[in-house]
């Protein structure tokens, strides 16, 4: 009886038990998860590009080794996430195709250019910092494979966040020119980073259902506020300024009040009109096309292996 299946599913979610790939689940739950997990995967893979841009220009061997490791981690995160989405019945090809045709989204943040070395520090600290704030609760998301992928991803993101802040501490204690580069990077990355949390709660069409299904454990605005509260003191510790004239500690709320986000910019970037959107998609399509021979070779190998096994 379908109602019994629905009741059993709802009871599992309410008891904070994980839903696993072979469990019955409502079709809309499956679709929401494929959407969110695949978009998360795309973000990791596209997110390799802005930083990859600086690997050959890192200022020292140490910084280069760290950056290489970070970008490789992001590739790994993308792969765990695609695998988690595949357990829901979506194929890798379908997901990649949705990205390349512009049907699937990826995080707005990766549509901004990395102009200086300080941007690499700012991405680690602010972008990975925002990612951690969003992903720590996802370790308890109701779908088992997604939750488990998040455990390792969060550990690696913590390293990413620290290395970014560490790079900026060095520059913030350096020459006037280095200090100015740090402030400039904060000025350009602050607002895009707080936009990563998505639309405000009253404009977030997916939130209510995702919270009911315990896919999302906290709302976009709750996470954004937590991120701002945690990050402002870190800006001040660097001796830098937050580029928000309305930012003010609110004693009564126990939180920072902050200025209005530029939602027009946010939605324009979501629509694919971000400063580097075209370049990012071209790079992804080219990587996919250039890798065709690897997929073909793997298929040919598998066909030969089967032929041999059958003989
Ligand atoms: N960019 O109703 P909601 C990383 C879309 S971290 C683009 O609130 P939802 C690590 C949203 O998809 C970044 N689109 O949606 C890293 C929806 O459209 P749809 C990735 C956005 O799903 C660091 C529509 O707006 N992290 O990659 C954005 O309930 C450094 C309405 O929004 C994740 O994906 C945005 N910022 O909440 C890598 C975390 N915000 O799908 C490299 C997992 C919203 O209906 C270097 N995802 N939209 O067509 C989530 O937690 C959620 O999906 C949210 C959005 C919170 C992003």
TrEMBL record:
Gene3D superfamilies: 1.20.1260.10
InterPro entries noted in UniProt: Aromatic_CoA_ox/epox, Ferritin-like, Ferritin-like_SF, PaaA, PaaA_PaaC
Pfam families: PaaA_PaaC
SUPFAM superfamilies linked to this entry: Ferritin-like
Domain of life: Bacteria
Protein name in UniProt: 1,2-phenylacetyl-CoA epoxidase subunit PaaA
